[in-house]
Design goal:
The chain is mainly β. The chain is built from no helices and 22 strands. It has one domain: Neuraminidase (6 Propeller). The chain has a four-stranded antiparallel β-sheet with strand order 1-22-21-20, with no helix packed on it.
Length: 369
């Protein structure tokens, strides 16, 4: 068992990029090629700061790609766009909208897309789940809600409320907000991790709940809570490591993280860099079907990724420049190209405090190792 977690250090500076804020010029890369900073969508300059944020991607069985993000448009109720690419991320078109169908509030924050690897909860393999935070424009309270699509994310059907936050939905300690869902299948259950400010003992903690039918949810289990009230561990991402059948945030059981030792990621070069703020981590096989691969992590503090082998030893994190703009909770995902080769898809909606340069962008690069 590994005792390791990759969590966000939610301090004020983690909301700001340390990289220069440079506007991205739209361009058209070749289909299925490697590319950087390809613009999917540029928000109008009349939108509210930060205009776009928090990108999330998904690849379907036909190799098409989906991407969604937060948008800060003046529409009320708010809905979130889903874009689709059929050429490896070179070109994109708006495909559908992720809408609140039951609360009358809108769908506003932290969308995530997930495809069932197997039949589950009465739905076939390949069913797409969309989960997001629904709230009214005054941010008085919120639900994390789940929807399902059986037509490739063209339309969605409401399934259940995962969690309710009585609000206000802000990042102020003491406000009973909920945030940032992350999904994982494990032993016949779907786990939903999220950030939770409802416990008066903690400014914020990370928790999870599970379901077997997509409609009923177990009581929450604590995953991470700091030993001082103002501690904000941020958001959860979890990756399965097939080499040793472990999980990173990280243990042999992805439902038992609480009280595990938190190890920081530090680059193994002379810079000793620590990627902090809005983390994301995945396992990337080096070849399709192989159990050999690398862990890839990033934070919004810089544009690099940090890689390690399956052991995730603290002194073994290698910093790699992939020439892709950083972003708040930058999404990383392994995809297959049109020849079946594996690549790394990187997606960002931008950063807080940089509305004039924020856009929904993607990059496609070889898997670093």
């Amino acid at each position: 068992m590994f005792n390791f977690m990759f969590v966000s250090l939610a301090i004020a500076s983690s909301l700001q990029s340390l990289a220069s804020a440079i506007a991205i010029t739209p361009r058209a890369p070749r289909p299925w090629s490697n590319f950087n900073n390809n613009v999917v969508f540029t928000p109008p300059n009349t939108w509210v700061d930060p205009r776009t944020l928090y990108a999330r991607t998904l690849q379907l069985s036909d190799k098409s790609l989906l991407i969604t993000c937060e948008i800060y448009s003046p529409e009320d109720p708010l809905s979130l766009p889903i874009f689709r690419s059929t050429d490896g991320g070179a070109t994109w078109k708006e495909h559908s909208r992720f809408r609140d169908q039951v609360n009358g509030w809108g769908m506003a924050y932290q969308p995530i897309l997930y495809s069932f690897p197997q039949q589950f909860g009465g739905y076939p393999a390949g069913t797409i789940l969309a989960v997001g935070t629904s709230l009214p424009s005054n941010k008085s309270h919120a639900y994390i809600d789940m929807y399902a699509s059986t037509d490739g994310a063209k339309t969605f059907k409401f399934l259940s409320h995962i969690a309710y936050g009585p609000g206000p939905e802000t990042v102020l300690n003491g406000d009973k907000a909920i945030w940032e869902a992350f999904l994982l299948m494990y032993k016949g259950k779907l786990i939903v991790y999220y950030s939770d400010q409802r416990d008066p003992r903690y400014g914020q903690k990370l928790v999870h709940t599970t379901t077997t039918d997509l409609r009923h949810w177990t009581p929450i289990v604590n995953d991470v809570a700091m030993n001082y009230y103002d501690g904000r561990p941020g958001m959860t991402t979890v990756a399965h490591i097939p080499t040793n059948d472990n999980y990173i945030m990280k243990t042999a059981d992805p439902t038992k993280f609480f009280d595990k030792l938190i190890q920081p990621i530090v680059s193994n070069d002379t810079a000793d860099l620590i990627p902090y703020g809005s983390p994301f981590i995945i396992w990337a096989p080096l070849k399709a079907g192989s159990k050999e691969g690398v862990l890839i992590a990033n934070g919004n503090s810089d544009s690099n990724v940090y890689i390690n082998d399956y052991r995730a030893l603290p002194g073994n994190w290698k910093r790699v420049n992939i020439n892709q703009k950083n972003g708040y909770s930058r999404d990383i995902r392994v995809i297959r190209d049109n020849r079946g080769n594996l690549k790394l898809l990187v997606a960002s909606g931008g950063n807080f405090g940089q509305p004039d340069t924020n856009a929904l962008i993607v990059g496609g690069v070889d898997i670093p190792h």
